[in-house]
Write a structure and sequence with these properties.
The complex is a heterodimer of chains A (about 725) and B (about 350).
Chain A lengths: L1 H5 L1 H19 L22 E5 L2 E5 L14 H15 L3 E6 L4 E6 H25 L3 H6 L2 H6 L10 H15 L2 H16 L3 H31 L1 H16 L2 H12 L3 H25 L3 H9 L4 H12 L1 H21 L8 H10 L3 H27 L10 H28 L19 H40 L2 H33 L3 H30 L2 H16 L6 H8 L3 H25 L3 H9 L4 H34 L8 H9 L4 H34 L3
Helix pairs in contact in A: 2-20, 3-28, 4-9, 4-12, 7-8, 7-18, 8-17, 9-10, 9-12, 9-15, 9-16, 10-12, 10-28, 11-12, 11-27, 11-28, 12-15, 15-17, 16-17, 17-19, 17-23, 19-21, 20-28, 21-22, 21-24, 21-26, 22-24, 23-24, 24-26, 26-28, 27-28
Chain B lengths: L3 E12 L3 H8 L5 H6 L3 E12 L3 E5 L6 H8 L7 E6 L2 E2 L5 H10 L1 E4 L11 H12 L3 H14 L15 H13 L5 E5 L7 H18 L2 E6 L2 H7 L2 E6 L2 E6 L1 H6 L4 H8 L3 H4 L2 H4 L8 E7 L4 H9 L4 E5 L5 E5 L1 H15 L1
Parallel strand pairs in B: 3-8, 3-9, 6-7, 7-8, 11-12
Antiparallel strand pairs in B: 1-2, 1-4, 4-5, 9-10, 12-13
Helix pairs in contact in B: 5-6, 5-7, 6-7, 14-15
Classes of the chains: A mainly alpha (about 725), B alpha/beta (about 350).
């Protein structure tokens, strides 16, 4: 009884566990149950049950309700599809002037808007692409093909790579200093020499369009949310879902709305990149000291003046951190958008992976990683840059960067011109190194992979078999053996114990949505892979973080490593694991573990670091040794922050599991991938995306509620 | 009698929902406790006073006493829940947004405790900011700002950014900025509280020098009673939103109105605060000694001279007319006696 009073929560958990296990054993597996085929696949089968909702026919395999809930939400994807189709093709037909045929034509409003939007985006992308690479589409857009035939010299020549490289180096120097300038220059030279110039510039032009637009929309919405509680409340759920929604899943509806290609990818990238910008804008504006706002008001600012001259400049750093986020999201989307036909590095990577040409994939991946690091460091340097005393600078000192850039433009053009004489026969390497004409190391890597396989095949194979047969299969079977009702009870009970009625309601609603969708089994498989990844990641992350924390230098080093790894688009992680483990679940899991270990490590170090110095000193004065200090003081205080790390680890793991479908897994991701090539895929893709987002949100809700309570308890809120 | 610049008539500020309705129902009898039970917090409770042109009113109170809230009502950074506020005869609460902005651009300046400088602007740009907001052209506003830079003694640092300055220097910028538009009314919200004691004293002296020169109408907020005594023409002492006493420093020290005020005055060295006029008697008919003291002399400065006299000392005004007299024993009474009686 005393224990019950002392640890009431512990007994609640035990009780919940007992109920859960009892339910698991009490509910038998139905004889007709078989994985995968148990779900609505939209194939007609006489064994299926059918129901109609909103005029839609939904087919599914019926089981005992305790075992698997019927897919009452099965109509949702079909309904989304039909609504989209209706909106795009039938809703609000109107007369529009058609330039090509010179007459009015009847078209649905949304289709017209979508077409105008996409052609505008295409124009923007082409414009920037042609400044970087040369071309004539932009000129043609303003004139006509006949015109360009008459004046062929009007074609944009594109910038020689030397100028772009010099520009990147000079900008880096201005933002940060010599180190970054050197890195930028070397990266650009590497890209050029290894023949990745064209795809890199295509990706860059994609970002140059998507990032500024996302920034503008994000800032605008962020300001609106800061000013009006109502806007904030309306935006909040969308922001929440978008944070845990796999980027992959939003691609699918984009196909229906905007078609295939760069323009669709840019628009959908904005959907993904705007939320973090909104969040950081709100955060930055909220953090402004109230006295600064009052000072602005007392200076007689109108609302506009206050916003433009006081609030935004004061929140500059947070807003620029938002820009950094936007750029990184745009970049990772630029890679993933290859799935819907965006050109650039991602496309090459996808192609190489499809051909199983690991060497080529590695080259593209390295390029992607280098550019990601460069963009990240540059935008962070911009955010952290502070202007200093500028009293008496000469004209040259003040404008040296501009002058250097102008100089490099002139020199670049002269070099390119000289190049036309040197490389008369073949390509002008001083202007642009064509794709596949640079140095290629692909063969080397391919040979390396072959060698690895030849030498270590036995061991890798043995490890693979062991992992799959002895660990993964049983684990997966256990997850699938859970009756739906037992899972629901577990989720709701956990919600209730941690956060009371409110959390229980939220968690049960999220879980029910997944349980009532046609993909419960797939969700369980997703969950099992994610769980496996998260457990291992946390073990590694927490111990590596704790070890590195013992020394200031190693802690800083580890955080730096985390920073760099975090900038890589998740897709890149698939390359090395495919190289080592081939196309198996093991590959995906290793990628998940590598990717998800980043936040686990980072949050551990940050959490341990945040323990106040005063406490350290107090502990040392009470005579504790290092180990006691760790267990009695640092861990308890850092634990809430480490749990936030767990939260991030789960989100990262889910993302990677979903992307891992590319290698071939049987989870929700596989269906998202399928939906990409399905003409009725939009509804399925979106619903699947929401399912994944909800899995993330269930854990997010539980962990955050717990952390907030714990922090309040410890007085470190 | 000089003209009234700021006039408050039973001003209330109550935070919380339904504050306005509750205030009406209370019918002038606002009790902080009953309001708090209903979820409202009383910031300012029935404040009425006037500030005349060129006067410095110091509002003194501990944290949570409502002094900053009162100031924000008068600058209309928050809207008062009830009562009337007049600025030079204009009803402040009746002003629309445009008129309010005009008023702030031309008549008001404010200095903040945490300096509240714009981090992205240099010293001179910060000072020129209110002018530029007003629409003054760049050259003129920068010229004017440079004058202000000299006035507060920051020449040579005009192109520094706020983070490159010390606290005292930052507050000089804050003061210069608030004075850039030549306002008639000057609000200072604990301007020296965030500074080290030595710097604070230096800034107080500097502030008195400026005020001597500029003769602004000032509302000065502080939680430091010594600071209030040193600077004020009149002091308003606030507690729980209520003005406990509003009087000259001397009267507050000599005749504290409430127990709360008396606690502040107990530790005050009176000889440093009071002047002869505050304690002198009527002109004496007895023989006066040779020594004459000015009525405006601070007691501390003349105490030694008076105490060495055996006769009654004459008190004169600036024109050497006898206006009163003072016995040496009276000095001893003032410095040591009062306290005994009180305790």
């Amino acid at each position: 009884m005393e224990y019950l009073k002392k640890y009431p929560k512990l007994f609640q958990w035990l009780f919940l566990l007992v109920v859960f296990l009892a339910l698991c054993f009490a509910i038998e597996v139905p004889e007709t149950y078989k994985f995968i085929r148990g779900q609505a696949e939209f194939i007609k089968d006489p064994n299926q049950s059918v129901y109609f909702f909103l005029g839609k026919e939904v087919r599914y395999y019926a089981f005992d309700v305790f075992w698997r809930l019927p897919p009452l939400l099965g109509w949702l994807p079909i309904w989304i599809n039909d609504s989209l189709f209706f909106l795009m093709n039938e809703w609000m037909p109107m007369e529009f002037w058609n330039e090509d045929t010179q007459e009015f034509k009847t078209r649905p409003l949304l289709l017209q808007i979508s077409r105008n939007l996409t052609s505008f985006m295409t124009f923007l992308i082409e414009l920037i692409r042609e400044i970087l690479l040369g071309g004539l589409e932009t000129i043609v857009a303003f004139t006509s093909w006949d015109f360009i035939d008459a004046y062929p010299w009007l074609e944009l020549p594109g910038l020689p790579w030397t100028i772009v490289a010099a520009g990147a180096a000079i900008l880096s120097y201005k933002l940060s200093g010599k180190g970054l300038a050197l890195f930028a220059g070397l990266t650009m030279i590497y890209i050029s020499i290894f023949g990745q110039w064209k795809p890199s510039m295509q990706t860059l032009s994609f970002i140059l369009v998507a990032a500024p637009l996302s920034f503008v929309f994000g800032l605008g919405l962020g300001i609106a949310a800061y000013k009006s509680k109502r806007v904030e409340k309306a935006l909040y759920p969308i922001l929440l879902v978008m944070q845990t929604m796999p980027q992959y899943a939003v691609l699918v509806p984009a196909l229906v709305l905007f078609g295939v290609g760069d323009h669709a990818a840019v628009i959908i990238t904005m959907v993904v990149a705007v939320p973090p910008m909104i969040l950081l804008t709100i955060l930055g504006l909220r953090a402004i000291p109230p006295e600064v706002i009052e000072a602005g008001r007392m200076s007689g600012c109108t609302n506009w003046q206050l916003m433009l001259k006081v609030l935004i400049p004061t929140a500059r750093r947070d807003i620029l951190i938002g820009v950094n986020q936007v750029i990184m999201v745009c970049f990772s989307m630029a890679v993933i958008s290859a799935f819907i036909g965006a050109k650039g590095l991602g496309f090459n990577l996808l192609l190489a992976l499809n051909q199983l040409n690991i060497g080529l994939a590695l080259e593209a991946g390295l390029c992607i990683s280098l550019i990601a690091i460069l963009l990240d460091k540059m935008s962070l340097a911009w955010a952290n840059k502070q202007t200093d005393y500028f009293g008496n600078l000469t004209f040259f000192q003040r404008n040296k960067n501009t002058i250097f850039f102008a100089g490099s433009v002139v020199i670049g053009i002269i070099l390119a011109y000289i190049g036309t004489f040197i490389f008369k026969e073949s390509f002008n390497y001083l202007f642009e190194v064509p794709h596949n004409k640079g140095i290629s190391t692909a063969d080397f890597w391919n040979k390396g992979v072959d060698w690895i396989f030849d030498t270590f095949f036995v061991y890798i194979k043995a490890f693979n078999t062991w992992l799959i047969v002895d660990v993964l299969q049983p684990m997966r079977a256990l997850y699938l053996r859970m009756p739906a009702v037992a899972t629901l009870v577990l989720a709701v009970g956990a919600g209730y114990i941690i956060g009371g009625i409110r959390s229980a309601l939220v968690v049960s609603a999220l879980t029910l949505f997944i349980a009532l969708s046609p993909w419960w089994d797939r969700a369980l498989v997703t969950l099992y892979m994610a769980t496996f990844g998260v457990v291992i990641s946390c073990l590694i992350g927490f111990s590596v973080g704790t070890l590195c924390f013992q020394n200031k230098k190693s802690a800083a080093f580890m955080l730096g490593v985390c920073d760099i790894f975090q900038t890589f688009p998740s897709f890149v992680y698939l390359i090395p694991v495919m190289m080592l483990f081939g196309i198996t679940d093991t590959s995906v899991l290793i990628a998940v573990i590598v990717y998800a270990t980043i936040p686990a490590t980072r949050y551990t170090i940050e959490g341990l670091r945040s323990v106040p110095v005063g406490l350290h000193e107090a502990a040392t004065m009470s005579g504790v040794n290092k180990f006691q200090r760790l267990t009695k003081i640092e861990f308890p205080l850092a634990f809430p922050h480490m749990m936030l790390g767990l939260n991030q680890t789960i989100v990262f793991a889910l993302f990677m599991v979903i992307i891992g479908a590319f290698i071939g897994t049987e989870d929700l991701g596989q269906y998202i991938l399928k939906a990409l090539s399905d003409k009725n895929g939009a509804g399925i893709g979106l619903t699947l995306g929401i399912c994944v987002a909800f899995i993330g949100l269930i854990f997010d809700n539980l962990i955050r509620t717990w952390v907030n309570q714990r922090k309040k308890h410890l007085g470190i809120a | 009698m000089s003209e009234t610049v700021i006039k408050c008539e039973s001003v209330y500020k109550i935070f919380g929902e339904n504050a306005k309705k509750m205030l009406e129902e209370a019918n002038g009898n606002v009790d902080a406790k009953t309001f708090q039970e209903k979820g409202c917090i009383v910031g300012v409770n029935n404040a009425s006073f006037e500030v005349v042109k060129g006067e410095m009113l110091v509002v003194m109170g501990l944290s949570g006493s409502g002094k900053s809230t009162l100031l924000r009502c008068i600058s209309r950074l928050t809207d008062a829940t009830g009562g009337k506020i007049f600025i030079e005869g204009q009803d402040l609460l009746e002003l629309n947004n445009k008129e309010l902005i005009e008023l702030r651009r031309n008549k008001m300046g404010m200095v903040f405790q945490s300096f509240a400088l714009l981090p992205h602007k240099t010293v001179v740009e910060n000072i020129a900011f209110p002018l530029q907001i007003k629409g003054t052209n760049t050259e003129e506003s920068i010229n004017r700002a440079m004058e202000m830079v000299k006035l507060v003694g920051l020449d040579g640092r005009e192109n520094y950014f706020p983070r490159e300055l010390s606290g005292g220097q930052q507050q000089r910028v804050g003061i210069a900025r608030s004075l850039a538009v030549e306002p008639d009314i000057w609000f200072l919200d604990e301007p020296f509280s965030a500074l080290d004691p030595l710097i604070r004293k230096e800034m107080q002296d500097e502030f008195l020098r400026l005020q001597e020169k500029l003769q602004k109408t000032i509302m000065f907020i502080t939680h430091d009673f010594d600071e209030a005594l040193k600077l004020a023409d009149r002091i308003a002492i606030m507690k729980d939103g209520i003005i406990e006493q509003l009087d000259t420093p001397a009267n507050i020290v000599l005749n504290p109105a409430t127990e709360y005020v008396r606690k502040f005055t107990e530790e005050v060295p009176r000889e440093k605060v009071l002047i002869i006029e505050d304690v002198m008697d009527a002109p004496s008919k007895d023989n006066l000694g040779d020594l004459k003291v000015l009525k405006d002399d601070i007691i501390e400065n003349v105490a030694e001279k008076i105490l060495t006299q055996e006769n009654i000392v004459g008190v004169v005004d600036k024109n050497n007319n006898i206006v009163g007299s003072i016995k040496p024993s009276k000095i001893i009474d003032t410095v040591f006696g009062g306290r005994k009686n009180d305790s």
